[in-house]
Amino acid sequence: MANLTLAEAKKEIGPLRKQLNEWADAYYSKDAPKVEDNVYDKKYNRLVELETQFPQLITPDSITQKVGGQIDSEFTKVAHPIPMLSMGDVFSKGELREFDQRIQKLVGHPVAYNVELKIDGLSISLEYTNGRLVRASTRGNGEVGEDVTKNARYIKDIPQTLPEPLTTEVRGECYMDKEAFAKLNKERDEKGKSVFANPRNAAAGSLRQLDARITKRRDLSTFIYTWVNPPEKITGQHQAIDEMHRLGFHTNQTGQKLSNLDDIFAFIDKYTAKRDSLTYGIDGIVLKVDDLSIEQSLGNTVKVPRWEIAYKFPPEEQETVVHDIKWTV
Ligand code: NAD
């Protein structure tokens, strides 16, 4: 940043925040983004840059200080006593190396990570009482989400009952696979309706429906990756995923526990190449410290956990296709 004065930074930050808030509203609340993610990310990172240089300009309501997403007032609200957070992201392997160095410094020794695919959908929380699904909710603003229990009853891979009478909460990603997305958009196009910009928006627009019968007609799936309150025998993320899989949750089985950065980079290269051939959309790779007690001690910032990071893929070249079609509203 070339020698910006405080006054200049202030002048730039105002319109920047306004623009980002507008885009975030279209993306999170209306499920109809106005720009590509990389355009949003670039502006967002510029705001982070300005706020880092001039911390006195950070306000509590800045988009960098809160989890994106609002709650549609027509939904019943659900409080998340343990907030559903966002995730820090990086765009290069060099930044991942810096993340690992930061973690090692904080923890005092090298750590292993569970390396997972970053599924392109929206977060969902599932609560069970005595082994029965009692509530499903969206992330909303992180502290309060929307009740989508009726909708979740129509998602085939969500267990309505567990094989054990557990009272527990799990979280994961609700997504629409590529085939279901193409079919839905083809049908909508044939009927002269607006089409969804991408599978993420189609998933969000299909789950966040007041009339759950609409969700029933859409082909949604889940990958469950977080156990909010696991039993004591679970000590790491990889083990948690295995155990949730055993309980009947749909989990993504590609995750690997890795401690060497070269192996992590090889995982990234493998899925960067395989990305297009997967049946579901991914927008990056997530590294999570594979030790729940270390996770606990590292804790969170106001917006993101300190123990995980997303490496975001560069934008897909074919994405321009969405410019030719009318995005759904
Ligand atoms: P995010 O979507 O980048 O990352 C956090 C989310 O990743 C979690 O909440 C979870 O739902 C998801 N996730 C997927 N796989 C996961 C896994 N294996 N483990 C843990 N979590 C996993 O963060 P965000 O704050 O929700 O949104 C920011 C993103 O939204 C950016 O990529 C930005 O480009 C995009 N966005 C775009 C626009 C736009 O106008 N195009 C506007 C706002 C935000």
Would you give an account of this structure?
The chain is α+β, with helices and mostly antiparallel strands and 329 residues long. It folds into 2 domains: 6-65, Orthogonal Bundle (Helix Hairpins); 77-324, DNA ligase/mRNA capping enzyme (D-amino Acid Aminotransferase, Chain A, domain 1, 2-Layer Sandwich). The chain has helices at 6-29, 37-53, 93-107, 149-152, 178-190, 199-207, 212-217, 237-246, 261-274, 292-298, and strands spanning 77-79, 89-90, 113-119, 122-129, 132-138, 144-146, 168-176, 220-227, 256-258, 282-289, 308-312. The longest helix has 24 residues, at 6-29. The radius of gyration is 20 Å and the shape is globular. The two termini are 37 Å apart. 31% of the residues are buried. Bound molecules: nicotinamide-adenine-dinucleotide. Residues 23-24, 27, 33-37, 40-41, 68, 86-87, 89, 116, 118-119, 123, 139, 173, 225, 286, 310 line the site of nicotinamide-adenine-dinucleotide. Nicotinamide-adenine-dinucleotide binds at residues 23-24, 27, 33-37, 40-41, 68, 86-87, 89, 116, 118-119, 123, 139, 173, 225, 286, 310.
